[in-house]
Design a protein that fits this description.
Layout: E1 8-9, E2 44-46, E3 55-61, E4 65-69, H1 79-95, E5 104-110, E6 116-120, E7 132-137, H2 139-142, H3 148-164, H4 182-193, H5 198-208, H6 229-240, H7 244-257, H8 268-279, H9 284-291, H10 297-309
Parallel strand pairs: 4-5, 5-7
Antiparallel strand pairs: 1-6, 2-3, 3-4, 6-7
Length: about 325
């Protein structure tokens, strides 16, 4: 793995005020998912990562989810059961499994680690080789099934998807392309839309299209200040070339064509090449719109070289 996935603080889309959920879930709600799993998760789990050292209690599980609370959480808060089951179920439907375990381990803290969270993929020894989400908020906030309680977890899951799809073990885009993380914006939008939170997705879309609310200049790992990844790159591709599945196909293109032992990030031309393969269309003109002055003669040369280096990526050019 190129780097450890570290704790992320709320930025940009995660700070948006949001509405109550609505819309029909695209996947099965928790009460229709089998709740008696074949292998029960451990009842107690002692944290041993970063500064975390709580003794956690498993409060719910099914075949998709193992939900753990610290001792400050109110066990009468039950909405995370259905919410995170639907979210993880959709992600597996669209992107495939991550490792040999279908179960997602969600850890919720109250009145500590507030407004922050971190993921861990299945190959990370620090979290006992489990796909893990660890998030903290104030106890009062956990009573509300909205806003950051949905968006922050989905943001963190996006790191697992970007780093671990199809057997990969590092993110090839976070240092040189989208930082932390412009991919999360479209990922959050799509997951909300497909897990029963249309009004939340609409709020994300509105924020991304409001320059006064979205920081495209100062976010962790920024490489292309001012580029609106959501409006000018991801969303046009998302709408025109298949929505969630086109995002999944991008990671499949990476897995099928880039050596698994590669650790250096994609350059901009390679990035456009692989997304073109996912779309089945040459996205060079969209790249010129999205990346503006950053799309240079060097970028053109990178794209041409990528077309030579990765000829298994098919689209007209």
């Amino acid at each position: 793995m190129k780097k450890t996935i570290t704790i992320c603080i709320l930025f940009s889309v995660l700070l948006t005020a949001a509405c109550k959920k609505d819309g029909k879930p695209a996947v099965k709600p928790a009460d229709t998912v089998k709740t008696i799993a074949v292998n029960a998760p451990q009842k107690k789990w002692l944290e041993h990562w970063y500064e975390h050292d709580d003794l956690l209690t498993n409060v719910y599980y099914n075949d998709d989810l193992a939900l753990y609370y610290d001792n400050e959480m109110d066990t009468t808060i039950t909405w995370p059961r259905g919410a995170y089951t639907r979210i993880w179920h959709y992600i597996k439907q669209n992107y495939g499994n991550f490792g040999d375990s279908s179960r997602f381990y969600v850890v919720l803290h109250a009145n500590k680690h507030e407004g922050s969270g971190h993921p861990a993929p299945y190959y990370d020894v620090s979290h006992d080789y489990r796909n893990v989400l660890d998030v903290g908020e104030s106890l009062s906030d956990w009573y509300k099934e909205e806003g950051d309680k949905l968006r922050l977890p989905i943001h963190e899951i996006g790191h697992i998807v970007a780093s671990s799809s199809h057997g990969r073990t590092h993110d090839l885009q976070d240092d040189n392309i989208w930082g932390d993380s412009k991919f999360a914006e479209i990922f959050i939008y799509d997951v909300l839309l497909n897990s029963g939170y249309k009004s939340e997705a609409d709020a994300v879309y509105a924020q991304m299209n409001d320059p006064s609310q979205t920081d495209n200049y100062n976010y962790p790992g920024v490489r292309y200040p001012g580029v609106n990844f959501f409006v000018d790159w991801f969303y046009p591709i998302y709408i025109k070339y298949g929505k969630g599945p086109v995002l999944a196909r991008y990671f499949k293109q990476i897995a099928d064509n880039v050596p698994m032992d590669r650790t250096d990030d994609l350059n901009l031309g390679e990035f456009v090449h692989f997304f073109s393969g996912a779309a089945g269309a040459n996205l060079r003109e969209q790249a010129k719109i999205a990346f503006k002055e950053y799309w240079t003669s060097d970028s053109e040369a990178q794209l041409k070289q990528a077309q030579l280096d990765f000829q298994g990526v098919k689209y007209p050019y």
